[in-house]
Amino acid sequence: MSTWRIKGGRRLHGSLRIQGAKNAVLPIMAASIIAECETELLNCPNLSDVKASVDILRHLGCQVTRNGDVVNIDSRGMTRNYIPHELMREMRSSVIFLGAILARCREATLSLPGGCELGPRPIDLHLDALRKLGAEISERSGNIYCRADRLVGTQINLELPSVGATENAILAACAAEGETVITNAAREPEIVDLQSYLIKMGVDMEGAGTPTITVRGFKPVERIGHRIMTDRIVCATILCAVAAAGGKVELLSVEPKDFETVSSALKGMGCQIDCRSNSVTLVSDGRLKAGRPILTRPYPGFPTDAQPLLMAASLKAEGTTVFVENIFENRYRQVPELRRLGADIRVEGRVAMVTGVPELHGAPVNATDLRGGASLVTAALSATGETLVFDSGHIDRGYEDLDKQLLSLGADIKKE
Ligand code: UD1
Predict the structure, then answer these.
(1) pTM, rounded to two decimals
(2) Measuring from atom 20 of ligand 1, which residue has the nearest CA?
(3) C or N terminus of the chain, fewer CB within 10 Å?
(4) Ligand 1 — pocket residues by CB below 6 A?
(5) Superfamily, domain 22-227
(6) At 379, which helix (H) or strand (E)?
(7) Is-catalytic flag, 62?
(8) 2-18+230-415: what fold?
(9) Distances (CA, A) of 73 to 42, 54, 212, 381
(10) Cα of 362 from ligand 1 centre, angstroms
(11) Could you report the per-residue pLDDT of 318-341, keeping only the tens digit for each?
């Protein structure tokens, strides 16, 4: 894995276009197999997780080509309905293929996804939803077998608004007879993007972005073109980096309401933020103050994925910033590494308390996971001296050329 060498202390200035959203493109790639059709996806980020999805689609028998940010998928020749361990282990979110393969083939076998760096990530809600639609599911030797002679529309009430379970339920429901109503559904913008792709595919559905989603089956079309939405967590990353380092940045072609909670937290810390209809400008003098407590919640609450980023921005903020992580058990893995830079952070269970320090000092640190890695980069930009971020391959799972983007804003960053 590569290492990033960052010399902190430079102000960041400029404007950026932001990549397509990882969490939107992955379920949409899975959805592309529901019907025999050709899909053209624009604004596809070049990420290792997207490559893992391409490998799965090819294994299933689809033809996939990539040209710049355009990915073409032809799912007409799909021949397989199982995904082996070598492909599943690359990316936990490939569990989203379960509902899609079931919809297409009425039978699916997947190697079970294990836990991940954020702690145990159960899939009980995904399986309950598929069972409700008529699937019989069994587990043996690390595989999950899923079969449904018929999928029949039903009422699915999710115990938690899980993003992945909502997506799996939607995908399987596309092939169900009659109407499926999913309640307590996740409301994330990526689910709205999935719905807009599926509607282009001929699916009769509504409600994405609200807690109740209705799916009524589909009349497939042959060709679909879709542009992937902008990545709101990458937007949050850049805003946090500039807030911490100081400077002025304009994010272009973005949907400000998708990351409003992050913008408003940064505003509360003293940044000046100007939101237009599809751009956001942030100005920071790098001297922040602690804001109100940050409680992670399902959308429209504060996103868990942005918690490590805002934490990095709060390390030098005057006063104490309180974080409460409500989504994942193990989402403070960045903390011991941030402490190596001189951060003052106390963790008690789900709560982390960050007391601002006047200076951070560069140090060697390890990226332990995707957003934790981005959090270290953010902190390093506001530290004095040089930081080496090891194992930065984690960052490539979700960021396309983050180093080059920061470099274009004036950061001193080298990828080795
Ligand atoms: C998605 C995102 C991830 C983000 C997360 C929460 C993708 C590819 N990933 O992950 O970046 O951090 O949403 O916003 O979109 N849970 C269960 N049982 C289940 C499923 C989930 O208990 O069957 C729990 C999880 O352990 C977790 C919570 O529900 O505590 C939320 O997880 P979920 O919304 O499912 O996250 P993912 O879809 O895995």
Answers:
(1) 0.96
(2) 123
(3) C
(4) 23, 26, 93, 121-126, 160, 162-165, 186, 190, 303-305, 327-328
(5) Enolpyruvate transferase domain (3.65.10.10)
(6) helix 370-381
(7) no
(8) UDP-n-acetylglucosamine1-carboxyvinyl-transferase; Chain (3.65.10)
(9) 12, 9, 30, 39
(10) 33
(11) 999 999 999 998 899 999 999 999
